[in-house]
Each structure stands twice: as structure tokens, then as C-alpha cells.
């Protein structure tokens, strides 16, 4: 074989190897190893709401009267799980605490909402545990929980914290809400160093605002609306409320923003019959993409986004039952249960956060064993391997996940078209 022919042969062989390698990468399915984060204090409900880049999670832990018969939670606690170590964050004097989105940063500082031991003077129940105690936003660091101030009113909630220690949430004002008297209006707020750094404006004449997410640049997102509806998804930047585009009808909220300014949340469908996960991108003139939903499901909700643009969230049935956790990337929504190995024994119904390593935190139904029927928090870590037989393959019938009546009221708001409630 002459030299030219040898070079040509090895060139062709090299190209074939590259093509086969690319094809192998293309067909190799990313799957997940799944860690069951369990429950706390003998409870039967756990939902991991946030995960930082260390894989530390902030979790809402609860005890439901009967997990198989939907009823209210009788107690709830915010907790942090650090490599299997479960930490109960405590309360502010009352019985219960809880979490929202993005509630833990890289330093392990955590935020959320907690009851005090003081009855709400207006009989309001912002923490939603049926106690009607005042509910305050909290900051937790090094084993100590401290209350964050309101802007004159009785209650508030903290939702997210960035690596600079800025906290996003809402706090009540001294103004009576004309739509829900005698309750007070809410203002989206950014706190820092234990103080209100900024009370954020609403859109137009909307009386209420709530912030759910904040990135490391200090951009906050949430909604502007009334005490009963989220009218506008909002980006707050430099103290200005920027209404994000919708699908032609009023009704949207934003819950997460990455450091590139990509935003996720939920938007009412163009015909006002449903609500879908939404992606807003291409700042400063944002465009909106509806993520739609999975086959057989009716609603979807995009809850977390990382700097690679990977989105996680949840779908629901028409009656409001939680249905599937999903990951959305490159324009495709995938049921996480098709990527969880059968041995995980967890059927994922909610995905809330995704970190820069692609780890996902969420909530799942335990399929079998002594904890069958319980709802557990999970942490899913991506691996470059075929999933083999998946949870979706072995769960012949989809587990029914109907959260207790008071779960989720702290973190979600109605768009006027679906079952999601504040």
C-alpha cells in the first residue's frame, strides 16, 4: 500500500471513528441516580424546593393526617439536607415553618417563612397551617433563625437568596387591601443584612406584588396583581417593575431567573383555558416561549432554570393532581420518570430547582416498601448512561398525587384559569 493510499485509509478510518463516537454520544441517554431524601420528625411528606451547587437542598417537610386521604397538614418544617444530614431549621416561636423557591445559596444560608407565637390581628393565615398566627420571612445561618422585617404590615415570606446575601420575597404594608379586606396589601421586597433594602413597585394600578426569585446580579422576578390573581409576570431591575410578555391574555407569574437573565414561570394559555410553563429570554426586549405540557396532562409550571438554560418543572392533570416532573431543554419537554432507574422506587411529580451540575431537587411518590404512598423529597444527579428499565416502565398506573389543601398555597398563585393557588 503506497503512502498516499495509507494516508487516505487512515483518514477514512479516523472519520468513521469520529462519526461513530458522535453517534454513540447522540444515542447515549443521560439518566439520573436518585437519592431519596426522605422525611423528617416522623412525617410523611417531603419536597426539596431548592438545591445549590454543592448539592445541598432546602426541603419542606410535613406531616399529613393521612397521606392516602387528602387533608390538611398538621405540621410543617423547613429543613436543610447536607449530604444526608437533616437539619430542622426551627420556627420563630410558633409551631411551623416552610420554604419557597431558591431558598438556599452557596454559603448554606437559607430563607423561608415561619410562624411566630403572636395571633394575626386580622385573623389571616399567611403561613397556611390553620393556626392564624403571624407569619414572618426568615433568614437562617449557622443554626440560627432570625425574622426579617415587613414594610409596616403583619406578615411576609422570603423566597430566594443569592450568593451576595440579597433575599427576595414579599411583606405586607399598612394599607388595607380593598380586594380582600381587612387584610393588608403585599409588596415585593429585597432584604439584605437583615434590613429591607428595597420595597419594589407593582405594574400600573395593581395593589399587590410578590417576588419569588433573584439572581446573583440582584435582578428579581415575581408577579404584580391582586390578592386573588397574578396579572403580570415581572422583572424588577434597578428598582423598576418590567412587565414580561404574555400569550395575549392577562395572567402570568415568574419564579426563577438565571445569571443570563433567562426567566421561567407560568402563563395563561391564549384561549384562557389552561396555564403553561413559560420561558422569557433575550433581554432587554424579552420574548416568551410556552413550554406546553406532557401528553395526557393539562397544565404545566416551569420552576427552575440554570445558567445552561435547562428548565425543570411540573405538570398537572385537569383536576389539579400533580402528574409528572419534567426537564425541558433544546425545545423538548421530557418526563423525568423516563430517566429515573426503576430501582429508585420514586415516581417524580414535581421538580423545583436545577443547579449548575444538572442536579435536580423535587418531590416524588414512594412506590413500594414500608414507605409506600408517602411523598418524599429527592435529589437527582445526572450520569451519562442508559437508564435501562425506568420508573415509568415499572409504574403501570400513575400514582395519584393530590397535595394537602394547605400545601402550595404559600408558593403558588392562581392565574384565574387553573387549580394553582396561593
Characterize the structure shown.
With 422 residues, the protein is mainly β. The protein has one domain (29-394): Methylamine Dehydrogenase, Chain H (7 Propeller). 7% of the residues lie in helices and 45% in strands. The protein contains 2 helices and 28 strands. It has helices at residues 3-27, 391-394; strands spanning 30-38, 45-51, 57-64, 73-82, 85-88, 97-98, 110-119, 133-141, 144-147, 156-161, 167-176, 184-192, 195-199, 208-214, 220-225, 230-237, 240-243, 252-257, 263-268, 275-281, 287-290, 299-305, 311-316, 322-329, 332-335, 346-354, 360-366, 375-384. The strands form 7 sheets. Strands 1-28-27-26 form a 4-stranded antiparallel sheet, with no helix packed on it. A 4-stranded antiparallel sheet has the order 2-3-4-5, with no helix packed on it. It has a 4-stranded antiparallel sheet with strand order 6-7-8-9, with no helix packed on it. A hairpin with a 5-residue loop joins β10 and β11 (167-176). The model is unreliable at 1-28, 66-70, 409-414 and 416-422 (pLDDT under 50).
Key terms:
422 residues; Methylamine Dehydrogenase, Chain H; four-stranded antiparallel β-sheet; disordered C terminus
Which term fits the overall shape?
globular
Give the tally of β-strands. Answer: 28
Number of domains: 1
Largest sheet: 4 strands, antiparallel
Per CATH, what is the topology?
A: Methylamine Dehydrogenase, Chain H
Q: Tell me the name of the CATH homologous superfamily.
A: Peptidase/esterase 'gauge' domain
In DSSP terms (H or I, runs of 4 or more residues), the helix count works out at 2
CATH architecture tag: 7 Propeller
Uncertain regions: pLDDT < 50 for 5+ in a row?
Answer: 1-28, 66-70, 409-414, 416-422
Mean pLDDT across the residues is: 87
